[in-house]
Amino acid sequence: MTRTPSLGDDGGFEWKRLAQQELDRALDLHEQFVGGRMGGQRANFLLHDLSYLDFSGRDLSNADLSGARLHHAVLEGATLRAASLFGADLTQANLRGADLTRTDLRGVHLRGADLTNANMVECDLRDGLLMRPDKKGNLVGIGQHARTTDVGSAILARADLSNAKMSNAFIVQTDLTDCILRNVKLVRADLSNSNLTGSILEGADLTEATFDGAVLHGAILIGAILSETSFAGADLAGAVFGTVDYGSASFQNALKPVHFDTLDITLQTLVRQHVDWIRTAGKKGRRANLTRIDLSGMKLAELNFSAAAFEFAVLARTDLQKCELLMADMGFADLRGADISRADLRGVNLKRANLTGARLVAAKMNPVPIFGAVTQFWTSQLEHAKFVEADLSGIDMRKVVARSASFVKAVLRNADLSGADLQDADFTEADLRGANLEGCDLRGAIGIRQ
Fold it and tell me: If you placed Cys at 79, which of 59, 64, 344, 437 could pair as Cys (CB 3.0 to 4.6 Å)?
C-alpha cells in the first residue's frame, strides 16, 4: 500500500493507494461478508486512491468508499447497492450497467463518467462536503469538487434514476437520453445544454431548475413541478408537458411548436398543393411541411398526406382516420390520443413518436414496394416509439422495425407482426390474443412468452 499526496487544498492530506491484487483480496472478503459467510469483512475504502483499478462485476453492496478517488476506475456491472460514495471522485469512471440503488452519492464528482444503463433508483446525488480534522482540530473540507455534486459531461443514457434526490446537482452538457427520472428531486439543479431526448420526468420536482439550451426531444414532463424552472433557449420539439404557458419568461427563446392557425395558409390550400406535388412527382405543387406545427385536435380524416413532413409535430387527439400517410415522416411526433384507425401508414417513420392512448385499429404499416430494376421494400420505422395503452387491434405491422418500442398495456388483438424486428421492445401487460408473431426477432423483448 502506498500513499498519494493531495492535489487539493487539504493541508497535505494523503490518500491510501491499493494495488489491484490488494483490492481483489479486499473485495473477496467483502463478498464473503455480504453473503454472510465466515471470515468475511466489510470493505472500507474511506479516502483510498483506487484510480484505474478494476471492480467490474464485483459486489460492493454496503461498502464504504467515502471520499475515495476512482479516476478511470472500471465498475462495469458492479453492484453498489446502499454503498457510500459520499464525496468520492469518479471522474471518467466506467459504471455501465452498475447497480447504484439507494447509493449515497452526495457531493460525488462524476464528470465524464459513463453510467449507461445504470440502475440509480433512489440514489442520493445532493450536495455534500467531506470533512476531516486538521492538525489544530478544526474541521476542513477534503477535495476540490466536494461541495456540489458534479455530473457534467457524464453519460447517463437509459439510466434509471427514479425517485433519486438530485437537488442542486451540476449536470451540464450531460447525455441523459432515455433516462428515467420519475419523481426525481432536481430542485435548483443545473441541466444546461444537456441532452434529455426521450427522458421521462413525470412527477419530477424541477423547482428553480435550469434547462437552458437543453434538448428535450420527446421528453415526458407530465405532472412535473415547474415552479420558476428555466427552459430558455431549450429545444422542446416533441416534449410533452401537459398544461403549460409557453408564453412565460421561463420559455424565452425556446424552440416550441407553432399552432397551425398562425400559418399563412389554409388547410385546403396546403392539401391541394401537396396532392399536386404527389401527382406530378414533385414537378408542381409543394410538399406539406408540418414540422414542429401544432395540429392538435384538428379534423384531418381521409386526407392524403403521403410523404408529408410531420417531424416533431403535435397531433394529440387529431382525427387521422383513413388518412394516406404512406412513407410520411412522423418522427418524434406527439400523437397521444389520436385516431389513426384504418390509415395507410406503410413505410412510415414513427421513430420516438408518442402514440400513448392512440387508436390504430386496422391500420396498415406493412412494407411499401419500391419498383425499379430490382424491387425493394421500404419498411416502417418505429424505434423507441411509445404505444402505451394504444389500440392496435387488427393492425398490419408485418416486418416493421420497432426496436426498443413500448407496447405496455397496448391492445394488439389479431395484429399481424410477422417478420417484425421487436428487439428490446416492451410488451408488459399487452393483449396479444390472436396476434401473429411468426418470424419476429424478439431478442431482449419483455412481456412476451416465447
Answer: 59
Domain range summary for the chain, segments of one domain joined by +: 258-450
pTM: 0.85
Report the topology of domain 258-450. Answer: Pectate Lyase C-like (2.160.20)
The per-residue pLDDT for 137 is: 54
**Spatial strand order in the sheet of 14-17:** 2-5, 14-17, 48-49
pLDDT of residue 13: 59
pLDDT of residue 8: 45
357 with 388: CB under 8 angstroms?
A: yes
Show Cβ contacts of residue 425 under 8 Å, excluding neighbours closer than 6 positions. Answer: 402, 403, 404, 405, 406, 407, 442, 445, 446
| Set of cell numbers at residue 53 | 483499478
Residues of the chain with pLDDT under 70: 1-13, 129-147, 249, 450
User: Strand 131-133 to strand 368-370: parallel, antiparallel, or no bridges (unpaired)?
Assistant: unpaired
Q: Whose CA is closest to 260, among 307, 299, 232, 233?
A: 299
**Residue 172's pLDDT is what?**
87
Q: What is the pLDDT of residues 63-98, one digit of tens each?
A: 999 999 999 999 999 999 999 999 999 999 999 999
Q: Which three cell numbers stand for residue 295?
A: 395540429
